[in-house]
Amino acid sequence: xxxPLPRYHFAKPKVKSDQSEFAVGTSWEYECLxxxxxxxxxxxxxxxxxxxxxxDFCKRKSCTSPGELPHGSVLIPTGVMLGSTITFSxxxxxxxxGVSSATCIISDNTVTWDNDMPFCExxxxxxxxxxxxxDFYSSSREDFFYGMVVTYKxxxxxxxxxxFDLVGQxxxxxxxxDNRVGIWSGPAPQxxxxxxxxxxxxxxxxxxxxxxxxxxxxxxxxxxCKPGFTMKxxxxxxxxxxxxWNPPLPKCFKGCLPPPHTNHGSYNILDKEFFPxxxxxxxxxxxxxxxxxxxxxxxxxxxxxxxxxPECEAKSCNAIPNQLLNGHVVTxxxxxxxxxxxxxxxxx
Length: 348
Description:
With 348 residues, the protein is mainly beta.
């Protein structure tokens, strides 16, 4: 015998029955529910005391194809049959208006999508910032969208005479961090009164490039020192908006720059910017370290140190005999300062 009539999510018995048992060979008619292709079928009580399989009789109906989403994409992971969900997304630079997903459902005995298709619109930006003594130029003066570039220019006098210097990025563009709200890529530049930097002079230095009678914003100069002199600082400098050179102009002096430092050690004169020719510097090592190399070193007439800086090498301990009654000694490959030796007793 078979147990009561089975329940399916896709079909129901044409005639209900409260029977709790059915004889082998009994057949019963079912009909497919709305949302499935309309048809009826029979199940039979088999000799195994189980009802025959009904899985393949009712086929789910499908919603219409969603089509393409202009400037976006439609993700259809499990098809468009009843119960399936599709998702919508927009390309970079566009934002979604409407819902981000739709599910195929039953409505008035037919299958349909529960939401309308959204649309993707270009992300807009507000007007670019206005600047004093200048204006911006772009393909539009009113509407600004993702990717649009605006370029700033300073006002000029009669016959295009230069009245102001432009400081900052001359062009900015409309972008977005969250793919919804449009923002400008950076701040607007400024139009400032023309910059004039002082004539650059470096004692005992020779100008290599940047010759001129006056120096304006972003002008660059390059220096080298006369033979026998050493340079401290950058050999190139630019005229900045504050009318100063940056980096600061270099210095040329007879002597050496401070000698290099050494790990686990130091030298005896630490507070000097530069060292005169003939000056000696002595190195010393921290406790537990041995000095390796030439010491002291001397500043030569070429503006260089006579030898490379010495190094400080960790001292080594004496070897320990690998003999321990009823045990053994664990020794690392080298016995330099900080090395650990372990003593281990045998079991018991």
